[in-house]
Design a protein that fits this description.
295 residues, Rossmann fold, globular
């Protein structure tokens, strides 16, 4: 009979009293920020992790710390043709794939009028089309297993907007809409978790990490403060990526996991404020909306 044991930070379910079968993770953007924190947390908990990154050598220190558990693979999530190959490589090596984390991403700031078509399409490739293709690639394996989890690293920007973050928020809104729909149409044991962090001390605000569209003076009053915040806010964020990783692992291990996990007091306050505003607006215009019914 399987028994519950405690290993490091959380309770684990084992296949016997003597043996635990570790989960196999595929994490994109694994060399920094949430991706690195999740790689280290999963390995410390006894799981196996394949960290995917454009520069996999940046994961060498984690591979050295966990040589039997962590490996790195070169992968650019915008290379949608390679998604199925990466999944096949993971399954060939480990026999299964239990958790996919779509984490790779970047910050972009610019009013819509400042944002070029190329910039907008590139961000959608990174934040939406890439994760969609990789999710599509893992579903057949998880269907065969009748189990698995897909973690979409969204943002509070998947719920709450701000001037200058239009392109960024659009990609996250799209990813969240797709994932919520997946949770309704996939019925073979796969869980979906949308993570919505607020401001955490990742590298998104590092000098050179955030992409800033060419500014127009007409938007200095609205987008200017956002641009200044991103350019100077690195290191001032209140969120701890290591604590976020532990929260994500706890959500995945919950008997009734959430669909959305909002991380950080700033994010929780922002989402609550948006929900309150939506409720007030819905109530204010409810009679007008209901009066459109055919009689």
């Amino acid at each position: 009979m399987a028994v519950a044991v405690v290993t490091q930070r959380r309770k684990r379910r084992v296949v016997s009293e003597l043996e635990y079968s570790p989960r196999v993770w595929l994490i994109t953007g694994a060399t920094s920020g949430f991706g690195l924190a999740l790689t280290e947390a999963a390995a410390a908990a006894g799981d196996l992790v394949v960290g995917a990154a454009r520069s996999p050598d940046r994961l060498d220190h984690v591979v050295a710390a966990y040589p039997d558990q962590v490996s790195a693979v070169e992968f650019n999530v915008t290379d949608r043709a390679r998604c199925a190959e990466v999944v096949s490589e993971v399954v060939a090596r480990h026999g299964r794939l239990d958790v996919l984390v779509n984490n790779a991403g970047r910050t972009q700031v610019g009013a819509l009028e400042e944002t070029t078509d190329e910039e907008l399409r590139a961000l959608f490739d990174l934040h939406f089309f890439g994760p969609a293709a990789l999710t599509r690639a893992v579903l057949p394996q998880m269907r065969r297993q009748r189990s698995g989890a897909v973690v979409q690293m969204s943002s509070v920007g998947g719920q709450v907007t701000a001037p200058g973050f239009g392109a960024y928020c659009a990609t996250k809104f799209a990813l969240e809409g797709l994932t919520e729909t997946l949770s309704q149409e996939v019925d073979f044991g796969v869980r979906f978790l949308i993570v919505e962090p607020g401001a955490f001390r990742t590298n998104l605000f590092n000098p050179g990490a955030a992409y800033l569209s060419a500014p127009m003076p007409e938007y200095a009053g609205t987008v200017g403060p956002t641009r200044d915040y991103v350019a100077s806010g690195d290191g001032s964020q209140s969120g701890d990526p290591a604590k976020a990783a532990r929260a994500i692992l706890a959500a995945l291990d919950a008997s009734t996991p959430p669909l959305r996990l909002v991380l950080g007091s700033d994010a929780i306050d922002g989402v609550r404020g948006r929900l309150d505003a939506l409720g007030r607006e819905l109530s204010e215009w409810e009679a007008v909306g209901r009066d459109t019914t055919v009689e």
